Structures are given as C-alpha cells and as structure tokens.
C-alpha cells in the first residue's frame, strides 16, 4: 500500500505530559495520514480478514479482533513521512542505538462494543541481535466521531490502580510514538468500532554491547550471571543434569547452556519449531521436552527432535509424571497425557477444563491445573475432579516441600493451598508483585521464588521476602537449581542466574486487607 509523499498537510509533532511524567519517550505526530488514506488501510485490513485474539492471548488480557500482516511498502511509505521526526539515537541498556526503520509487520486491531486491551507493555521485535525495536508506533485510523470510549490510558506501573500518567484520545491519522516500557491500556469501546494499526520503530546497535555472558554484583547480596543469545522474549528456563540449563524463546529455538567455572557458556541451539517455544521440561535422563505456540510438543535427545503430541493452540505448561509420561496444558482448554513414544497414555488421556491451562502440578495420583478462568482444578487417577475459584486468572503453579500448592495470579497474589476435608482451600495469600505473577518455583530448602510482570524475581520464606532481583522486562519463567540458586527467563531476552543470601529484607509489617473470599484465613499484603 503506497501513499503520496509528502502528505497533503504538514505533520505536526506534539509533546505531551506523559513523556514528562514517566521520563520516557511519548509524543504525537498529527496529520500523518489523511481520512482517505485511513479508509484505504481499513478496507485493506478488512478484506484480509480479522480474527479473534482468544487463540493467542488470554481473555483477561485482551478480547479485540486482530490481524497481523507484513507490508514492507507500507512500512517504507510511513517511514519516509515521519523519519525526521523520530529520535535519531536512543541510549538504553548501556548501548547507543541508531534509527533503522519501521517494522514491516503491522498489527491491525478492531475494537467493537465492549472490547478492550488490559494493562500491558508492548513487546519488542528483534530482527537480529543488533536490530531491535525500542518504540511503539500506533496509528489511529478513526476517531470519536465513529465510536465512544477507547481512550489509550498510560499508567505509572503494571497495577491498573496505579496513578494515571495521562490519556490520549484517538484522532484519525495521528500516530502516538512511545517507549515499549510504558504501561498502558486500551479502554473499553462503549459504542461503535475503533480501528488501530500498530508497528514498531527499529533501532540498530551503534556501540559495542555488553558481553554475551556477564558476571557482576547486584542488589540483595546476589551474584548475577546474564546469558544472552536469544533474539526476542525468553519464555522458559529449566535445569539440566550436570548443572546445565535449557531456555526457550520467541525466536523458535531452545538453547542449551553449559556450566563453566566462571558461569555459563552456549553449548547448542535446538531448531525445529516453527513458532515461539512457550513451554519447556527437563527429564532426569537429559531429554528436553518443548512446546510451542503452534501447539506442537517435541522431545529432544542428543539434539534430535521427535514429535510427542500436540494441542489446538499454544502449549502453556508441561509436567513430568512417572513412567515416562508427560502432562501438557494448552490454550485450547485441555490437559493431555502423553508417552515419550509419541502416543496418548490411555486410559483417560485427556481432561477438558475449558480454560487456558497456565500451570500443572501433581501430588501422588492427583493432578492440579491453574487456569485462566481463576480456577484451581484437581483430578485423581479415577477421574474424580473438583475445583476452587479465585478472583484473578491463575498464571503459575507449584507444590512446596510440605505438600502445599502455591499459585500465582494475574492480580499479583501468591496463595498457599492446603488439603481439607472439603477439598483444597487457600490458607494464606499475599501480594507479591505489581502486575501478574508469571512464574513460581520451590527451591530445595523450601523457599519459594516468584517472577512477575514487574520484572522482579522475589524469594520468599512463608510470606516474608528474603531477596529481590530485577530484569528489564517481564519475568516469564523460573527454574530451581540444585544448589539453591534461581534461574529466570525474561521478555528482556536474557536468562539470569541469581545467588541469594537467606537474610530477610526489612519491610513494613503485613496488614490484614480483607477476609478471604473462601472464608479461610485473612489475605495479607505488604
């Protein structure tokens, strides 16, 4: 799709208070597209066909219609219009980045009555190790003459109750350019239809990057090892025999990292998935099992993949069971049992839970599933099942050394569940993160580590926090290492390994917030 160049009217750059309040880049470019050009973009996208986001994004996160389409000509035409108005250089992560262009992958969003996009930060696009996106470029294709609601609202952090930095009301043909790190929402459309097109501003690394592997001191008496090599989000990390690690990424690879006297070193890259690798599992014999966004589950032995099973949607969780069986949970709302031979392990090899399955765990013959609909579900070998409900989507699940179940949810809460005569009930809950808890793991000494959308890895004994470590973006996966260290996987593209002391962090006393919705012990918050 080509446009006349230059545009019919001059483009006006407008700074706003959001950039001042956040200390990050945020500005408007008014008049980039005229009404006829916006209409052509909408017509082209509509002809290509929109689809629901439910297969790729949890319903609690977003529910609008979406189209992803590569259009290099459109990227070039837009870039020609706005390139002189974009930051020519950006300094971030100790590196200077030079303006490179626009991402040709456009994401078109259609918001109809009641649809919205919950609080989030935009993901970075990594074209290579040296060319990545730093800024969002969002184009409003219509305005409030055709819909009501739909404001873009910026927040101070990932808590939707956090201070509002400012609102941007959609204006036809206007682009809002902002740092990927800014938290924002697409407020619900209350009538009509809102149309938006998003791409990214790409930057090329101009100065030397930090080494692929660094060792240094960080806060909380922690020694940090940083493993770099993935191009894009790192979804998961697991510990392998002999001290090695495996990590899974949006770049469609699984990477193996060997333990060395000074940290870790790249060993091997496993290629074979055709989409983001979203789940990972390590077995005692060194076999690595991976699941991807397209639904495939593969087992890797000596670098060779073998298909084990599949889901009709992203594989979100994997769990090892006795006798070489594997448990998988998916965005298709199913839990499935598989054997390493690549066939379902009958009988009862499928459990329809009807919601995204973010976490799996087992105690004896009982299997637990943490689900997007806010339920903790359990089922025994004879097929008897039950559930308990929480106010938030459950995003993480683990079993502690005492046999209790630990869940993490989209509200930032950790909950400890214990068996009672009437089923499993939460006995205590505490606010652990700002934004969703994405990962929970239990360390060999009984401590619990959690990772969240606030970029933090927190280590707990009971509800007392012992240590805090930081990534530059969401912490999506955690692994407990045999020596008590924690490995974390993040959307910042790194895997990090932390060594923590068990010294408690001084903090204010816990306060009672409210009674548990389940009528058990009070909820606690920092």
UniProtKB/TrEMBL annotation:
Keywords on record: Cytoplasm, Dioxygenase, Iron, Metal-binding, Oxidoreductase, Repeat, Vitamin C, WD repeat
A Gene Ontology BP annotation from the UniProt entry: proteasome-mediated ubiquitin-dependent protein catabolic process
Keyword Cytoplasm assigned: yes
Record-linked Gene3D superfamilies: q2cbj1_9rhob like domain (2.60.120.620), YVTN repeat-like/Quinoprotein amine dehydrogenase (2.130.10.10)
Pfam family name, one: 2OG-FeII_Oxy_3
Superkingdom of the source species: Bacteria
Required cofactor(s): L-ascorbate
Transmembrane segment boundaries: none
Keyword Ion transport: no
Residue stretches of each WD repeat: 227-258, 308-341, 430-460, 468-499
GO molecular function: dioxygenase activity; iron ion binding; L-ascorbic acid binding; oxidoreductase activity, acting on paired donors, with incorporation or reduction of molecular oxygen; ubiquitin binding
UniProt name for this protein: 2OG-Fe(II) oxygenase
Organism of origin: Nocardia huaxiensis
């Amino acid at each position: 799709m080509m446009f006349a160049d230059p545009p019919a009217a001059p483009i006006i750059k407008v700074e706003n208070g959001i950039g001042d309040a956040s200390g990050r880049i945020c500005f408007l470019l008014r008049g980039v597209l005229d009404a006829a050009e916006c209409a052509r973009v909408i017509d082209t996208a509509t002809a290509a066909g929109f689809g629901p986001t439910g297969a790729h994004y949890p319903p609690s996160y977003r529910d609008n219609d979406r189209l992803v389409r590569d259009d290099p000509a459109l990227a070039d035409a837009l870039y020609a219009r706005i390139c002189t108005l974009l930051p020519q250089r950006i300094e971030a992560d100790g590196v200077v980045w030079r303006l490179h262009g626009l991402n040709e992958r456009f994401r078109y969003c259609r918001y109809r009555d009641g649809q919205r996009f919950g609080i989030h930060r935009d993901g970075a696009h990594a074209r290579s190790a040296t060319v990545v996106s730093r800024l969002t470029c969002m184009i409003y294709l219509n305005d409030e003459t055709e819909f009501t609601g739909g404001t873009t609202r910026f927040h101070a952090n990932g808590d939707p109750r956090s201070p509002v930095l400012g609102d941007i009301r959609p204006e036809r043909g206007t682009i809002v350019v902002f740092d990927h790190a800014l938290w924002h929402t697409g407020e619900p459309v209350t009538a009509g239809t809102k149309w938006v097109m998003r791409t990214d501003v790409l930057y090329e690394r101009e100065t030397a990057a930090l080494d692929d592997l660094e060792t240094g001191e960080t806060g909380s008496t922690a020694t940090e090892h940083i493993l770099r090599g993935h191009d894009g989000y790192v979804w998961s990390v697991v510990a392998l025999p002999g001290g090695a690690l495996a990590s899974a990424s949006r770049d469609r690879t699984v990477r193996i990292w060997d333990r060395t006297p000074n940290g870790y070193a790249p060993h091997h890259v496993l290629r074979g998935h055709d989409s983001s690798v979203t789940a990972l599992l390590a077995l005692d014999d060194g076999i690595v099992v991976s699941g991807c966004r397209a639904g495939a589950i593969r087992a890797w032995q000596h670098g060779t993949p073998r298909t084990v099973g599949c889901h009709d949607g992203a594989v979100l969780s994997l769990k090892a069971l006795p006798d070489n069986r594997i448990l998988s949970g998916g965005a298709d709302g199913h839990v499935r049992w598989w054997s390493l031979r690549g066939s379902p392990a009958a009988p009862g090899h499928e459990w329809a839970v009807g919601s995204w399955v973010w976490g799996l765990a087992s105690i004896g013959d009982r299997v637990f599933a943490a689900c997007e609909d806010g339920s903790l579900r359990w089922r025994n070998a004879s097929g008897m099942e039950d559930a308990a409900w929480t106010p938030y989507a459950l995003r993480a699940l683990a079993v502690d050394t005492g046999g209790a179940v630990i869940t993490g949810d989209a509200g930032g809460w950790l909950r400890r569940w214990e068996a009672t005569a009437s089923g499993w009930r939460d006995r205590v809950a505490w606010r652990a993160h700002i934004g969703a808890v994405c990962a929970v793991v239990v360390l060999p000494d009984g401590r619990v580590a959690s990772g969240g959308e606030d970029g933090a890895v927190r280590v707990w004994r009971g509800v007392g926090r012992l240590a805090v470590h930081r990534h530059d973006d969401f912490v999506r996966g955690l692994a407990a290492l045999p020596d008590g260290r924690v490995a974390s996987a993040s959307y910042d593209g790194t895997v990090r390994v932390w060594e923590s002391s068990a010294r408690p962090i001084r903090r204010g006393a816990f306060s009672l917030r409210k009674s548990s919705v389940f009528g058990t012990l009070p909820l606690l918050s920092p």
